[in-house]
Specification:
The complex is a heterodimer.
Chain A: H1 2-59, H2 66-81, H3 87-108, H4 112-115, H5 118-153, H6 157-163
Helix pairs in contact in A: 1-2, 1-5, 2-3
Chain B: H1 2-34, H2 38-67, E1 70-73, H3 79-92, E2 99-103, E3 110-113, E4 121-125, H4 126-131, H5 134-149, H6 152-188, H7 193-237, H8 240-252, H9 290-298, H10 306-316, H11 350-367, E5 371-374, E6 380-383, E7 391-393, E8 400-402
Parallel strand pairs in B: 2-4
Antiparallel strand pairs in B: 1-2, 3-4, 5-6, 7-8
Helix pairs in contact in B: 1-2, 1-6, 1-7, 2-6, 3-5, 5-7, 5-8, 6-7, 7-8, 8-9, 9-10
The chains are: A mainly alpha, B alpha+beta.
Chain lengths: 188, 404
């Protein structure tokens, strides 16, 4: 009789240990995901802050590029407006902003005076680096989400995740406009 | 990735343990021989080791940085370097930004230091900073960041201390044996002479072999960590070519770092003590040959994950075991590579400098209400505010230029 009591106690203890381990693992990963998301947010905000400076610097040189400049300003406003939205929606808006900035820097190649402007060069370095930081923090965020989701779906932690209602993390993909579209071919 | 690091850590721990056993054995022999008590010797060895470890642990990075004449910099001093370090900090998921130091030296090298990932520093020579483009710099900083993230700095510092202790102890014991120690041994060996003799012979062999063996183990650990740091750099940057071409530039430079230090050699991106002529062997170097590292990185055709690095490693070394154990691969699935980033100039060329000077001059004139008009022939005219006429004669082409 004694023997069976000990066996049951042992099983309960082992089960508890597994549950506690899985739960703590899940919480740790969830915090990592949150933290990684905050990192992305910091960089996206930094980009919003840099753009007005860039516009101010560029305006004097690129009088004939009003469309390009407006596209950047509009994309920035649009992205900033939905900055409380989920990863999916934001990705689209940030993709538009990134593309608009890319066009602006491409056009700037035609303005040697602008390219010699120290202020512009400094801003270009800052924006390029911010762009990199966005993609690196996205990379780290998505890796964290993947590991979190794996943990939620895999045995045995999936049981614990169900018990405590852990929700799957959402990947952050920045959609570059046109990248995903099938090439348009017209037969005329 | 944490599983990965843990797996490598167990391997490193085994090697470190072997070294520790060697250290204790020498201590035991020392005590046995000099104080006729093995435990006393063990105790002495442990104390020496402990004190040296404490020094290395608490002031190692400070000593290293001041020995290298490294200057700390802020975000404004070298914006590109600061940005790249921050990018790699984000990519590696490091919590705190490491301090950045500059070493004023033409040699091409960089190193990382700091006992824990939240209190780390990276240092880079001005020579390297000038030579590298953005992607290459990213690769180098990614490599250093991996040393910090994988806690290699602590591991290598403590291993170096252990190696040092073994070498010092072995040296002193052998001195004691040669001068004077012999007499005492003979005096005390009355009956059990044979057993004493065996211990003496084993001890002497150990004394000779231990420092050499310890050195080889140290090199082996160091090389393993180099490969892992290369693999991590490729993973962080998603662009192995950056590090590959940076390593090529570093390997091609004949200039030696003035302030390099033997004990800290494993922390540099490349061995700061290049051997003249043919090197004796792979086994006596803190770093794998640069050509091999470059080839492995360039063979990573499929992606940037640890699995891809491992595959490339096995391919380059034609078979054998991989450097990163299979069971502990970083996240299953593919990790894509990225494109090279476009080059941004942060410093202007001579032509651009004159253009900038002119631009500043023009701005000054404009402030003073000067009007700047351009002739059809391309000549610019600066018209003072009180100029009376509606047009001006261009002395270059003879035409009239409208002022208003």
């Amino acid at each position: 009789m004694d023997f069976w009591v000990w066996i049951i106690i042992a099983i309960v203890v082992i089960l508890l240990a597994i549950i506690v381990g899985a739960y703590n693992g899940l919480v740790g990963l969830r915090n990592q995901v949150k933290n990684a998301w905050a990192q992305i947010d910091v960089q996206l905000k930094r980009r919003y802050d840099l753009i007005p400076n860039l516009m101010e610097t560029v305006k004097g040189y690129m009088k004939h590029e009003r469309e390009t400049l407006e596209a950047v300003t509009n994309a920035r406003t649009a992205a900033q407006q939905i900055s409380d939205a989920g990863a999916g929606e934001r990705g689209k808006a940030e993709g538009m902003l990134g593309a608009a900035l890319g066009r602006l820097f491409a056009v700037a190649e035609n303005y040697p005076d602008l390219k010699a402007n120290q202020n512009f060069l400094a801003l270009q370095e800052e924006l390029t680096s911010t762009e990199n930081k966005i993609s690196f923090s996205r990379q780290y965020y998505n890796d964290s989400v993947l590991r979190f989701n794996n943990k939620i779906q895999m045995v045995p932690s999936n049981v614990v995740a169900g018990l405590f209602n852990f929700k799957l993390g959402e990947f952050f993909e920045i959609e570059v406009p046109g990248e995903r579209e099938a090439p348009k071919v017209s037969f005329t | 990735m944490w599983e990965q690091i843990r797996a490598n850590r167990t391997r490193s721990i085994i090697l470190v343990t072997v070294m520790a056993v060697m250290l204790l054995a020498i201590g035991y022999f020392l005590g046995f021989y000099i104080f006729e008590s093995g435990l006393a010797g063990l105790f002495i060895a442990l104390i020496i080791w402990f004190v040296m470890s404490l020094v290395a642990f608490y002031s190692g990075d400070g000593i290293l940085l001041s020995l290298s004449h490294a200057k700390k910099i802020g975000p404004k001093d070298y914006p590109r370097l600061y940005n790249v370090v921050e990018e790699m900090k984000i990519a590696s998921g490091l919590e705190k930004m490491p301090d950045i130091y500059i070493i004023d030296d033409k040699a091409l090298n960089a190193f990382a230091t700091g006992r824990d990932p939240n209190k780390a520093s990276v240092a880079i020579t001005t020579g390297l900073l000038e030579k590298l483009n953005r992607d290459e710099l990213q690769g180098v900083i990614g490599h250093e960041m991996a040393h910090i993230k994988n806690r290699d700095v602590l591991l290598m510092a403590l291993t170096a201390v252990m190696l040092g202790t073994i070498v010092i102890l072995a040296w002193y014991v052998s001195r004691l044996l040669i001068f004077g120690g012999m007499g005492r041994s003979r005096r005390s060996s009355g009956g059990g002479g044979q057993a004493q003799l065996i211990i003496l012979i084993v001890g002497i062999v150990a004394l000779i072999l231990a420092p050499i063996l310890a050195q080889l183990i140290y090199y082996a650990i160091s090389r393993k960590r180099e490969y892992l740091a290369d693999a991590s750099s490729a993973l962080y940057t998603r662009y192995p070519e950056g590090l590959a071409s940076a390593l090529e530039k570093i390997g091609g430079s004949p200039i030696q770092l003035k302030t390099a230090n033997k004990a800290t050699a494993p922390m540099y991106i490349n061995n700061p003590f290049p051997k003249k002529g043919m090197s004796l062997s792979h086994a006596t170097s803190t770093h794998p040959p640069i050509a091999e590292r470059v080839r492995i990185l360039r063979s990573m055709a499929g992606g940037a994950s640890f699995a891809d690095y491992d595959k490339a490693y096995r391919q380059v070394r034609s078979g054998g075991r991989g450097i990163i154990s299979d069971s502990t691969q970083y996240i299953a699935g593919t990790v894509g590579l990225r494109e090279a980033s476009p080059e941004i100039k942060t410093t202007a060329t001579a032509g651009e400098k004159t253009a900038r000077t002119r631009e500043v001059g023009d701005a000054m004139l404009r402030l003073n209400k000067y009007r700047i008009v351009e002739c059809d022939c391309g000549t610019k005219w600066k018209i003072p505010p009180d100029f009376p006429d509606a047009d001006v004669l261009c002395t270059k082409c003879g035409g009239r230029v409208k002022v208003r």
